[in-house]
Every structure is written in structure tokens, then in C-alpha cells.
Amino acid sequence: MKANSSIHLLDYTFRLTAGVGHLRVRRRNTKGFTLLEVLLALALLGSLLVALNVFVFSMAEAWGKGRNERLFAQHARAVTTHIEELLEAASIGATADGLAVREVKQDSGGNEPKLVFTLPEGSRLLAWPEAPLPDVELSLCVGQRGGLELGWQSRLEVNRDQEAPRVTVISPFVVSLGWEYYDTSFKRWELLEEPKRESDGTYSLPQRLRVRFAHGKLSLERTVQIPVHGEGATRS
Question: How far apart are CA 149 and CA 160, in angstroms?
């Protein structure tokens, strides 16, 4: 009887010990990650951070390389847009005088053919020494040292015929202007470096102006349409 009791006691002790061990194993497995799993996760995280760092710096480098080109193109677009606005203001409306090409007096002496027009209220680019005057005559050309220049003076100024117009630089990056005329006989465009002069000595108004920009290694061309003169007119 005692032997049977000892056997039952040993069996119970064995089962109890096995159960405790089983519980201990389960608790140990749910306690956390192993060292190998932690090292593997750190290695993956480091690889992702390196790849992200390389991607960010490469994108920043690519963006920086194209920054000058974008700024240059934005400048050219803004300049040509402003020119078109000035020409439209001088050509469209009941009081508009329209555009013409004629010789204008220079500071250095002599005359030079330029695109000329009149604005009743002038332009926001004009810096008057005193109070602004109306009926401003303007001329558009490339200066002798480069740069797109806007010559201007009011018809109300006393010494207008004796003095050369004031000059405002619209863009220092314009190197030349091209004068484009449409040949209706041959149905093609003709590009000239100077305004076309007729047999009677007058100059023909082009249908388009080609504005050439250059700065260092950057260069581009933009076309300005010459608007048709008249109330409610559109560009040619």
C-alpha cells in the first residue's frame, strides 16, 4: 500500500514538474524578441535609412541642377508677357495710337530705328524724377551694351525734341531682337536682324518679334506677337 502511494506521489510530482516546466517555457517564448531578431531588425532599419538618405540627397542635387534653368525661363516668360501687355495697351482701344517703327534719337548721338508706341498712363516700370506725366512715348530696343531697354518721355515735356528719352532696362539678359515679317506671296516667315525699310525710307511694322535671352551657358528665344491696331482688336 505504501509502495502504491509512493508511486502515485512520484507520478503526481512528475506531472506537476512537467506542467511547471511547460508553463515556464511558454512564458519564456512570449517574453520578447531574441538577440538574433533584434540584430536583423536593426540591419533592415539601417539599410532603409541609408537608401532614404541617398534618395533625398539625389533629389536635392537634381533639383539644384535645374534651378538656374527654371529661374531663367521664368524671367524670360515674365519679360515677354510684360512686353505683350504694353503693346496691347498701345494698340487696343478707342484712344490707342498703335505701333510703328521709326528712328529715335540716341544719347550717343544719331538715330536708330525702334519699335515705338504711346501709352496714355505710362507704365509701372517708369521712374519719374517728379510727378508722373501722361501721354508717354515709349520705344523698345536692345542697348549697345546688351539688355532690353525701354526708352520713354512724355509728349508734355518742354524739351522733348531736344533731349534723348530716358531709359529703363527691362531685362539685362536680352542680347538681340529678331524682326519677323510674313511674306504673303510665298506664304512664309522672313526673319531679319533689322527692321525692314521700304523704298520711301519708312520702316515696316513686323508681325512678330523674336526676343533672344542669354546668360552664361543658358540661352533661349521667345516670340512676341504684334497686336493689330484698333478697338477690340486681337493679335495678328
Answer: 19
